[in-house]
Amino acid sequence: MKAIKGKPFFAGIHVHDKKSLACNKETERMPEPEEVYISLSQSLGKPAAPCVEKGQKVKEGELIAKASGPISSNVFASISGEVTDIKPLVGANGGTETYIVIKGDNSGEKAYLPPLENPDGDTIKQRICDCGIVGLGGAGFPTAVKVAPKTSVDTLVLNGAECEPYLTCDHRLMLEHTDEIVRGALMIAKALTVSKIYIGIEANKPDCIAAFEKYDEIQPVILKKQYPMGSEKHLIYVCTGRKVGIGKLPADSGVVVQNVATAYAVCQAVEQGKPLYERILTVSGGAVKEPKNLWVKVGTAVKDIVDYCGGETEEPKKVVQGGPMTGMALSTYDVYTHKTTSGVLLLTGKEAAAEEPTPCLNCGKCADVCPMHLMPMQTAFYASAGDFDSAAKYGNTLSCIECGACEYTCPAKRPLIQAIRKTKAAMRAKQTSSAPAPVVKPVDMKGKSAPTVTLEQKPTGEYVDKGDHKVINEGIKPDKEEKK
Amino acid sequence: MNNQVVVSTPPHVKSPRTTKGIMLDVIIALIPAAVMGIVYFQLDAFIVILTSILASVATEFVYYFIANKGFGNKCKNAGLVCKKWLKQFDYTSIVTGLILALILPPTTKWYEVLLGAIFSIAVVKMLFGGTGKNLVNPAATGRIFMFMSFTITVYSACKIAPVGADSQLFTGATHLSGYLLGGAASAQVGWLDLLLGTGLAGCIGETCKLALIVGFIYLVVRDVIKWWQPVLYVVLSAFLSVCLAAIGSTFEIGLFIDYALSGGLMFGAIFMATDYVTSPKGVYGQIVYYVALAVLTSVLRYLTKIEVVSFVIMLMNLVVPLIDTYIVRKPFGYKKVKKQKEGK
């Protein structure tokens, strides 16, 4: 179908996308690592419950941990070999996660589910659940829950925006596996019993738009090159003109959004019976020798990935897992990929800003660019004084999608997202416990520079899981002996 | 591999724009006005501008040096303190000094300017906490301070910019005061003269409107200010002035341009009202702020017959915290929730 232009939306930022580093690199399959560390916390919700034992032989694609709860997902062995250990480790976010360690035997034995032919909607839903498919855009919400909405839906929107700078994995996927994505989208549409399928693609990927124009079943929508166009609520608004209410799910507006990579995974799960144990990710940034788009097994060490891409050309200032706007800064290379890891970025000092904050000028630029129409400066103002109630009230913080547009644009380089996350954590703590709310320290805005840690220096046991993945900066403290 | 990496919350890339850069843009935008002021009023204007900027920066430095703890220690490590000060210096005091100079008449004595600049920086800005913390616009308040302290020089004596190369400087009432007091007093002044400021009395930077418009365009292109803000203020204020002038006489839309281009309105609208620190943060708050500014300016001009722009800006600055507290934007998708509530 001929591509149409999306509805105009006036907020957000224009970031230099730096996608040219890797967007022309064809995807490669990274050789199997000798050992994988597969986390049991692969999606939001509770970690999966392991169903293998130490010493057990597993095949590639075999179930090793079962979902335990409504928004948890199955976990699969990504290589064939022997389970050598099941142990807790400190993850990228500073919290502990349980990992299943598998030592590979290079036999290449696979244990897939039987392929389905002409399945009906319920069979597809069951298969999505069995194959442990989660939203591959980054949030990791189990797809099985998304395709079984409580309200009736009439539209499926595929998210091919890939608005994050540097990342090009969805771009490559859309070019190289257009057909599978469309088939996967049709399967999801069948499971949801919807007829209208949109795919939103940013205008900086004309080749992808052209590729999808060949299909009659799917309506490509050209999105303005503007961050964050890939945010669920804004994608829905731009494609369908519907607004998702505050605190509501997209399904309440009759829409379900799926990432293109998720659609591809669904297609593979149904047609080949292949569970989700590998994904495509982008390795990029100024400090990596050869930026690449790689098929990587879940549980591969970031260190191996960086080594495979030729290592560092210079010392990176920041190592980021995920996109540069919402991803996580790593303190060590010894972390392992998850189902949701969409990129590994090695940013040079020039690319990654680590400037000290200066006083807020009240310029209001953060409010101008906020796609949710919030007032981040109010949140930061009250949060720095420790008054989180007022922060949430005047900044409307709880509606924040944490896209990072405000902090990107801030001329004073204020840590706005940190203030927002702290406010959210404080409000959540207040809601969940009837006891007096735990004291969350005010956000430090006094211009102390961000903590630095030495790579390869692993955070030790003193960093306890705070039970909240979103508050990531707390666990990592600067080493006092290091110079500033 | 034993290097240091920074661990912080996202986003990991940030825009190249900084506070310093924005202040530099404002200074660049003010340069045409300053240059035209020096061309028209020559040495007098130059002395005022120089005194004002130097006094502002020096005041900030002295305040930084003597305020806070450890004065004795700071004296010992004066060099280090200077370095530290330079590192955090963000050009805001230069902007304040320059704006203050440009809204003063060229006849102002240097010691008057000195006192005004010290008041602007020390009392209005630094005592409230420095950059970003001041409640009211330092330059506008500094001018008001001088207006009250040295009324004769600041208010009544304005030199007239030379029309040709050979005409002498002499003092007289500003074009605007002529309008407000008598009406047809300056009928001989054409729109082009108003735009260029030739043959008019006025303050150093406010006389040549063309230079101000150039600065305005620069600021808009550099995305420092939003174009509609000064336009809303100037157009609405001039229109209301025309309406008020029509009370008891005929309605003359031709006066519109005279009102828009006279006095300190345009300078105030472009460089003072749009000051980030003392204007509302949200879009709706900004609309309220500029409409209120325009209404107050035209009404007070009509009633008091003097130039009121700095007073009005200071007055509205004081209301800004209230505007910010009570006019909060509704988040994206808010309407939907409201509708459903009504449905119940």
Q: Please, could you describe this protein's structure?
A:
The complex is a heterodimer of chains A (484) and B (344). Chain A contains 13 helices and 19 strands. Chain A is of the alpha/beta class and 484 residues long. Chain B folds into 3 domains: 20-150, no CATH class; 156-201, no CATH class; 225-326, no CATH class. Chain B has 16 helices and 3 strands. Chain B has a two-stranded antiparallel sheet. At the A-B interface, helix 6, strand 16, strand 17, helix 12 and helix 13 of A face strand 1, helix 1 and helix 16 of B.
Give start-end ranges of low-pLDDT stretches of chain B: 161-173, 181-187, 336-344
SSE string of chain B: EHHHHHHHEEHHHHHHHHH
Count up the helices of chain B: 16
Radius of gyration of chain A: 22 Å
* Strand composition percent of chain B: under 5%
Helix percent band of chain A = 10-25%
* Helical fraction of chain B: 55-70%
**Strand pairing plus helix content of chain A: what structural class?**
alpha/beta
Uncertain spans of chain A: 455-484
Number of alpha- plus pi-helical segments of chain A = 13
The biggest chain-chain interface is: A-B, 78 and 48 residues
Report the major sheet of chain B: 2 strands, antiparallel
- Strand tally of chain B, please? 3
How many strand units of chain A?
19
What do the pLDDT scores of chain A average to?
Answer: 85
Question: Could you outline the blueprint of secondary structure elements for this entry?
Answer:
The complex is a heterodimer of chains A (about 475) and B (about 350).
Chain A: E1 4-5, E2 28-29, E3 35-39, E4 49-50, E5 57-58, E6 63-66, E7 75-76, E8 81-90, E9 96-104, H1 121-130, H2 143-146, E10 155-160, H3 169-176, H4 178-192, E11 196-202, H5 206-213, E12 219-223, H6 232-240, E13 255-259, H7 260-271, E14 278-284, E15 292-297, H8 302-308, E16 318-321, E17 328-330, E18 343-347, H9 365-369, H10 376-384, H11 388-395, H12 405-409, H13 416-432, E19 452-454
Chain B: E1 4-6, H1 19-66, H2 71-76, H3 78-88, H4 92-102, H5 110-125, H6 138-149, H7 151-156, E2 158-159, E3 171-172, H8 175-181, H9 191-196, H10 209-221, H11 228-245, H12 255-261, H13 265-272, H14 283-304, H15 309-326, H16 334-343
